Automatic annotation (TrEMBL):
<keyword id="KW-0472">Membrane</keyword>
<dbReference type="InterPro" id="IPR036396">
    <property type="entry name" value="Cyt_P450_sf"/>
</dbReference>
<protein>
    <submittedName>
        <fullName>Cytochrome P450</fullName>
    </submittedName>
</protein>
<keyword id="KW-1133">Transmembrane helix</keyword>
<dbReference type="GO" id="GO:0020037">
    <property type="term" value="F:heme binding"/>
</dbReference>
<feature type="transmembrane region" description="Helical">
    <location>
        <begin position="15"/>
        <end position="37"/>
    </location>
</feature>
<comment type="similarity">
    <text>Belongs to the cytochrome P450 family.</text>
</comment>
<keyword id="KW-0812">Transmembrane</keyword>
<dbReference type="GO" id="GO:0004497">
    <property type="term" value="F:monooxygenase activity"/>
</dbReference>
<dbReference type="InterPro" id="IPR017972">
    <property type="entry name" value="Cyt_P450_CS"/>
</dbReference>
<dbReference type="GO" id="GO:0005506">
    <property type="term" value="F:iron ion binding"/>
</dbReference>
<dbReference type="GO" id="GO:0016705">
    <property type="term" value="F:oxidoreductase activity, acting on paired donors, with incorporation or reduction of molecular oxygen"/>
</dbReference>
Length: 453
């Protein structure tokens, strides 16, 4: 009889899928007409501005979820990693999670560029489900411990962010003054790898993250800059590891690695330590900084929710503050898709009407953004709500390769923003300065806010 009670919910969710898809289609048509008739720039640039932003992306995915949940196109979307020129885009929650857990069918692509960065070796994000993957992730989990989050990571971030905000005179360029320095400070204080300077470590990690994950068109200029950054990064890490071996013992991530290396644990030679830490550092700095800015920007666009988040920051209600930050990120995740390559001929959504054959070497994009708005899986998906279960959020991947820093992210992002959100009358600076400026990179580099002192 249970099915009888589930039937109304199932019908209602499908109705929402249809209504939301149709509404998104109308929205996109209106945006398209607006771009066609608009002035300034080319039609392409006007169209990009109208539907290329986060809201436009969500509308495109709503249409796809209804009409073509698993779209397959004969177009080479990614030139930076080998593939056969066919690209599939999965949009429904059930297919996205299915793809990201079928590691034997859909493998990670990043190996070749990881090997360029380390000068030969792969890093575990670029590895398939192999014994080497298990060894390396296990080693790194022994040094980056979950226990450290409440005892070292969060206290450091809270103190550092509060000190910075206390020092600025009512005006702050958030990425430059707050989020990059705090993320870089964590690399120093917790990882034991400060880099030759904060500017250098920020530049290397940002450039190499861009090269690994965002440079889909394989820009030769970026390639040259990434090669140079990787060589400098390796040289600095080699020198730093050698110096740390001679110096006094410190209980930070690098110190723990060195102890494991001294105990001759497999996969923990100085070269292995260098390569693993380079991988972690690239994952840490640009992502934490960028994501904090995206959350802030999304909240500022929603005055009601922004006021509630600020009130939570002021009253020390950390759980409520975190709920606002992560719900904001559901609307603005750093990455809207996670991509894989088909390891063999296979299919998505087998046994359903939306089944698609996937030929070996096709690129498969699983949209985590779309999954988080799928009305078949997420109740009241279009609304901004702070009572969602944590499992709703697919903000940093899913499955075997889900973010190594997940627990760090969950603690650090609200802690980093809290002292700023607690300031009276926090607002955007006037004009363009109060909008995110990526300064030619894929990440926020300038974002000016003001508050009363
Ligand atoms: C909010 C900040 C962050 C975001 C948005 C983010 C995003 C992601 C995503 C989407 C993936 C999955 C990639 C894929 O499956 O292709 C991932 C994996 C990974 N992230 Fe993060 N990340 C963040 C912070 C961090 C931090 C702080 C670290 C380091 C402590 C880190 C290290 C890694 C590593 C090593 C992996 C690979 C995990 C594996 O292959 O098992 N990330 N991250």
């Amino acid at each position: 009889m249970q099915w009888l009670f589930n039937l109304p919910t199932a019908i209602w969710r499908r109705l929402l899928l249809i209504l939301q898809g149709l509404w998104a289609l109308i929205w996109l048509i209106a945006a398209g007409i607006g771009a066609l008739l608009g002035k300034g720039g080319t039609i392409g640039s006007r169209l990009g501005a109208a539907i290329g932003g986060p809201e436009g992306q969500r509308k495109v995915f709503a249409v796809l979820r209804l009409f073509q949940p698993n779209l397959v196109i004969k177009r080479k979307v990614i030139a930076s990693y080998p593939n056969n020129g066919v690209t599939a885009i999965a949009t429904r929650h059930t297919d996205v999670t299915d793809i990201l857990t079928r590691d034997a069918d859909f493998g990670v692509v990043y190996g070749p560029r990881m090997e360029m960065i380390t000068g030969g070796e792969n890093f575990f994000l670029g590895m398939q489900d192999t014994p080497r993957y298990t060894r390396d992730t296990s080693n790194m989990r022994l040094v980056v411990r979950r226990d450290d989050v409440p005892t070292i990571v969060t206290p450091y971030v809270s103190t550092a962010a509060a000190e910075i905000v206390a020092m600025v005179p009512g005006k702050i360029d958030v990425p430059q003054a707050l989020t990059q320095p705090v993320a870089a400070g964590l690399l120093d204080r917790y990882f034991g790898t400060p880099g030759p300077s904060q500017a250098a470590i920020a530049e290397w990690t940002t450039l190499l993250f861009w090269y690994l994950f965002i440079d889909l068109q394989a820009d030769p200029d970026l390639d040259a800059r990434a090669q140079a950054a990787a060589a400098s990064f390796r040289d600095w890490m080699d020198g730093h590891i050698a110096a740390r071996r001679k110096g006094r013992k410190t209980d930070d991530v690098l110190g723990r690695c060195l102890a494991m290396g001294s105990a001759e644990m497999p996969g923990m030679s100085d070269r292995d330590i260098r390569n693993n830490l380079i991988g972690l550092l690239i994952g840490e700095l640009p992502t934490l900084s960028a994501t904090a800015n995206l959350a802030l920007d999304e909240l500022l666009d929603r005055p009601h929710q922004f006021a509630a988040a600020c009130a939570a920051a002021r009253s020390g209600d950390d759980a409520t503050l975190a709920a606002y930050v992560f719900e904001a990120l559901r609307f603005r995740p750093l990455n809207p898709v996670v991509y894989r390559r088909a390891m063999r001929d296979t299919s998505i959504a087998a046994g359903t009407l939306r089944r698609r054959k996937i030929v070996k070497d096709s690129i498969v994009m699983a949209s985590n953004l779309s999954a988080m708005f799928d009305p078949l899986a997420v109740p009241d998906a279009p609304s901004f709500r702070t009572d969602r279960p944590w499992e709703t959020y697919m903000l940093w991947g899913y499955g075997m390769h889900a973010c190594f820093g997940a627990h760090i992210n969950r603690a650090v992002l609200p802690a980093m923003l809290k002292p700023l959100l607690a300031q009276p009358n926090l607002r955007r600076a006037e004009g363009e300065r109060g909008q995110i400026d990526k300064a030619g990179t894929p990440f926020p580099q300038h974002f000016h806010l003001e508050f009363d002192t």
